[in-house]
Amino acid sequence: MYLWKTKLSVASILMVGIVFFNQSMLKAVENNSPHYEKGVARISTKDGKTGIINWKTKYITSKGIVAATSNATNSSQRKLLARRGAIVDAQRNLMEKIKGIRIDSATTVSDHMINEAVRAEVKGSLKNFEVIDEKWDGEVYEITMRVPMGKIYKVFKNPANATLSDRKATQPKETKYTGLVIDARSLNLVPAIFTNIYDEDGRKICGPIHPVYRVSAKNINNIKEERIGTNPLRIAAKNTVDPNNIDLVISKENLKKMKQMLVGTDIFPKKKVVILID
Q1: Is residue 15 domain-resident?
Q2: Is 48 left (phi over 0), alpha (psi -120 to 50) or beta?
Q3: Does this model's pTM top 0.85?
Q4: Is residue 60 part of a domain?
Q5: Domain span at residue 54?
Q6: How many Cβ atoms sit within 10 Å of the Cβ of residue 160?
Q7: Is residue 247 within 8 Å of residue 197, measured between CB atoms?
């Protein structure tokens, strides 16, 4: 009896260890990802800097750092002036990151800012900044702020080249599926506001789609996300489209499933799409 209890205890400890190990491995995989940072996706801007976008909540985050000026008359004024400078620096960095955001495989926000209306919308978004962290060590002020992508997204939400699957239908077709999950892990996919889907012969089948990008080491069948509901169609992407690796290539078999089950429904118009990256 004693021996049986001992074996049971050892087995329990091993099971706990395995669970803990698997959870640790998952966190390690996520943290080593080039796109992962506290649950958000990182993007590379045109000038080589790194911007941060939470593709679910549509926030862009940036930091501003300024050293205290020697012109201040007292410590309170030094702190106040340094804080103001840090805010200006953070806003400037935010603008650079916004300008470098990929709209699609061909353009960035910067490319569209030659249009005066677009430029005004983009600059106006900086007025909605929110300070989420600030530090002062007596010499240097550091501010972390974010702005919502809402106004920026609205400028680009109705691309002229949208296909039939992206236009809102007055009476969408019924389907048993509640969303779409596309597994693009290991394909070096670059996150962008919009992505397109192509077949293996290079024909555009669907898009632009505005998806949520999610870094994950989980099995595709275990992915849960509010926007895709409880019964999403799950497919794997076959490749990305050169040279920017923003658009996806889907196999004939998976395209057939998409056309039969999703085209004409509200899945694409209501953006019930999650793309897995690593």
Answers
A1: no
A2: left
A3: no
A4: yes
A5: 37-156
A6: 5
A7: yes
